[in-house]
Amino acid sequence: MSDAVLEVRDLNVDYGLGDDAVRALRDVNLTLHRGEVLGLAGESGSGKSTLAYGLTRLLPPPGVVRSGEVFYHRDGGDPVDVLRMSHAELRRFRWAETAIVFQGAMNSLNPVHRIATQLTDVIKAHDARSTRASRLDRARELLSLVGISADRLDSYPHQLSGGMRQRVMIGMALALEPKVVIMDEPTTALDVVVQRQILRRLVDLRERLGFSVVFITHDLSLLIEFSDRIAIMYGGRIVEEAASARLYRDPLHPYSQGLLNSFPALRGPKRELTGIPGSPPDLRAMPSGCAFHPRCPRATERCGVEVPVLGVPEGRVQHSDHRGRTVACLLHPVHDNGF
Amino acid sequence: MSYLLKRIAFYLFTAWAAITINFFVPRLIPGDPVQALITKSRGQMTTEAVQSLYVLFGLDKDESVIEQYFRYWGQLLRGDLGLSFTFFPSPVADVIGDGLPWTVGLVGITTVVGFLIGTAAGTVVGWRRGSWADLLIPVTTFVSSIPYFWLGLIAITLLTGRGSFFPASGAYDTGLVPGWDWEFIGSTLRYGLLPAATILISSMSGWILSMRNMMVTVASEDYVTVAHAKGLSERRVMVGYAARNALLPNVSGFALSLGFIVGGTLLVEIVFSYPGLGLQLFQAVGAKDYPLMQGIFLIITLSVLLANFLADVAYLVLDPRTRREG
Amino acid sequence: MAVVPTTAAVTPVKRRKPRFVANPKATTGLALMGFFVLMAVIGPWIAPYDPSERSSDLLQPPSGKHWFGTTHLGQDIFSQVLVGTRSVMLVGLIAGVVATVLAVLVGVTSGYLSGAGAEGLSALSNVFLVIPALPLIIIITSTLPDTGNITIALVIGFTSWAWGARVLRAQTLSLRRRDYVEAARATGESTWRIILFEIMPNLTAVIASGFVGTVIFAVISEITLAFIGVSDAGGWNWGTVLFWAQSQQALAQGAWWWFVPAGLAIALLGTALSLVNFGIDEFVSPRLRGGGKTRVKTADGRTVRMRVGFTPVLGEEAK
């Protein structure tokens, strides 16, 4: 696809080495398009955070990327593989092209430096020609972008509320006008009102500045509201991918259905709240066949033997909102030619 | 600045406690403390010494303990610590006045420098975890277990002797008259080099280990990952993010262990016959010079409290969270 | 580790070594310590000579007859070091026990209870923490009429509990707010029951490491006291050996064997105890653990180090 910014191909991530290794991501394929908000959903341990940190090479030890490719499409240039970059190249690439807003709003900011320092050091690192004054101007601009008054520049992180800190992090992520912003559970620690405020602002900014977002959360209701497309992860694999409206109305994978049934409907007819029985799989001892089959209400004997492949489901009309729709479930036979 | 005020109040309280302990320790022995000390010295005490002890303990007059306590305070505030009988009839205050500059110069400087070098080395060892730097850990563990004074003995055996650059004892060439001229300063530096190196090596290793552990702990904090994600230079992440935060517990650890370190470093003076408080304490112990021992204990305690206070101020500067808002 | 919550859950079972004895540092430390305890018990029996006995072999370097050489009076230094082990270990252990008991009493009480009494105890331990311990011990022991092992051990024990108390207090304060403690309190369990059965078991590691730390300090202190001549020079310990070596100018006479063995023994014992403490530290906070292999070979043959911030890419062919 021509308008892709980030393409993940056959990404395999392990924790540990050799025989002790735990396979946290298995053959993950994912494409992020220009200007879209792509949601990643799944229970904890499904690999969504591992995916975000694996493709940026920020996984702490014992995490290793075993194989795969992560192509980043520069403006008017050849795509580059993030996984083949040297440390120096990676440093130049980071934040300038892909920025990350981390999970812990409380711990993402360095407690001993002022907000100004933390906003400007990243500009300085990537633009040696910038002056102190220009960096401070930019920092002030970034704070106003996320709705924080400029006099907070001299504050220390502990003097800000949780919501403010997270907005500072979002402002910081936009400092170098990256084309991709990865948000890992950016609002989980915040209360619902602040959560929505922040996400609303983010979506506005996205429209103004035109970056793409990978939005990771276990809260599917937030994704359906704020993202264009959603990929559902289970046991280190992507099990379904679809436009969010489509996924909401017509989930194919029983796991997606289970996730959707675990929160109340936003509008439309009332559904029964059921949730999913059982608990997420232990990555050290994955079930055979489809990883979801022990918890699946519609599992057959075949599910315990055969690993379903992600592909475009047969017999579905290729609507515009079916673009890129894929599923990995034996209930839904897929085209061989995939996607 | 209520934090600083609280600390000041605490140090004043501790100083009071130390002085009170100093007052009561000899009085807790049943009977006449002077008599007990005379027995202990196996009759080596001169009559002047015995008299000096009676005056020090306030037993020359017929007073209650409370009256003695207040008189003790009065004496202290006038700087009167009694008479030393090793250096009879010099007042203890004068004897200590002679030794203090040497100790501050040697122990003070090396303790701080040892902390700084050890912390810097620990930063690198912790940051480069899993590399060759890890080999330093068993070495430093062993070195930090060696008593300071024994390392001094080894240094003297190996590095001093006839024709060696390093003198085995003293603080300056005895042929020189102390003064602010280059010859004397040069001689002081030459004599101080080996004792200083001994203290540095033993005190450094402890800081390397603790800073290394803090670096390992801090390296997995979120803000360090964020710093990496921002594409900051290796140096900036290591110093500005990881080490800057790992330093905080190390500084408070430094403040808390000053009391332990100073005790150990004083012994280096004994081994090198360096004319500071440590050597004086050694001489006082040998001669059962109780007034001098007490005086040295007080001065060391007060210096350690002062150093602690300075470390607190440093911590205050380093950690914005302890500062009051606004 | 809030960044990647899955890491902890997926750490391989084999890599995890939950048992303390499986830690190589702790095992080495314990083995060394066991050796010293054994020497403390049997040392006086297996010593080839009476450590105080004079002979005509004055100031002899190490030989088959005298493994560690002899003193200016012809005493056998090997026997002195061997016999001295008992005093060193005895003082270390007694002082360690006394200080640990005091630390637990003061630390846990001031951490669990609130009010002026608890604040007072906490202030008391801070006072003892900043007063330089060694000079204080010297002041006290030089006043006391008797300076045998037990007295020295008690003085050291009574002056060096503050560090442990401080750490224990901090730990107790955090434990007190845990859910299960709150629950126990809500069901009306008595304070002492909660402290004994809910809090204390969770303090074991902290208490153990405090104990080991105090033993190190006590050993060094005892040796120092003997070295500067405060304690009774009649009994033998490693410090007494060094005291005689120093006062008889062993250095000037080139008699290195007089002070090297005792010093090495101190350093070895200190290392053993530190290793045990590292083992406890790593047992308590897994971040400090070596974590097995840290070097990775990539498919094209380069070796990279596993580190925070730059995940290694192996580049293997997909399986």
Condensed summary:
The complex is a heterotrimer of chains A (339), B (326) and C (319). Chain A contains nine helices and eleven strands.
Structural class of chain A: alpha/beta
Integer-rounded radius of gyration of chain C: 25 Å
As a percent range, the share of strand residues of chain C is: under 5%
Beta strand % of chain A: 15-25%
Oligomer category: heterotrimer
Radius of gyration of chain A: 21 Å
Low-confidence stretches of chain A: none
Supply the CATH superfamily name of the largest domain in chain A.
P-loop containing nucleotide triphosphate hydrolases
Q: So, CATH architecture of the largest domain in chain A?
A: 3-Layer(aba) Sandwich
Instruction: Give the strand tally of chain C.
Output: 2
DSSP strand tally of chain A: 11
Overview of this protein structure:
The complex is a heterotrimer of chains A (339), B (326) and C (319). With 339 residues, chain A is α/β, with parallel strands linked by helices. Chain A folds into 2 domains: 4-234, Rossmann fold, CATH 3.40.50; 237-327, no CATH class. Chain A has helices spanning 48-56, 87-93, 115-126, 132-145, 162-173, 192-209, 220-226, 244-249, 254-260; strands at 4-15, 22-33, 37-41, 63-73, 79-81, 98-101, 180-184, 212-216, 229-234, 237-243, 326-327. In chain A, the strands form 2 sheets. In chain A, strands 6-7-8-3-9-10-11 form a 7-stranded mixed sheet, with helices on both faces. The longest helix of chain A is centred in the middle third of the chain and has 18 residues, at 192-209. By secondary structure, chain B is mainly alpha-helical. Chain B has 2 domains: 2-77, no CATH class; 92-325, MetI-like fold (Orthogonal Bundle). Chain B has 12 helices and no strands. Chain B has helices at residues 2-24, 33-40, 47-56, 65-77, 92-127, 136-145, 148-159, 182-219, 222-229, 234-271, 277-286, 290-318. The longest helix of chain B is centred in the middle third of the chain and has 38 residues, at 182-219. The model of chain B has no long low-confidence stretch (mean pLDDT 83). Helices cover 62% and strands 2% of the residues of chain C. Chain C has a two-stranded antiparallel ribbon. Chain C has helices at residues 6-10, 24-46, 77-112, 116-130, 133-143, 149-159, 162-176, 179-186, 191-228, 238-247, 260-284, and strands at 295-297, 303-305. In chain C, helix 4 (116-130) packs antiparallel against helix 7 and helix 6 crosses helix 9 (191-228). The relative contact order of chain C is 0.13. Chain C is mainly α. The chains are: A alpha/beta (339), B mainly alpha (326), C mainly alpha (319). Chains in contact: A-B, A-C, B-C. Chains B and C meet through helix 1, helix 2, helix 6, helix 7 and helix 8 of B and helix 4, helix 5, helix 9, helix 10 and helix 11 of C.
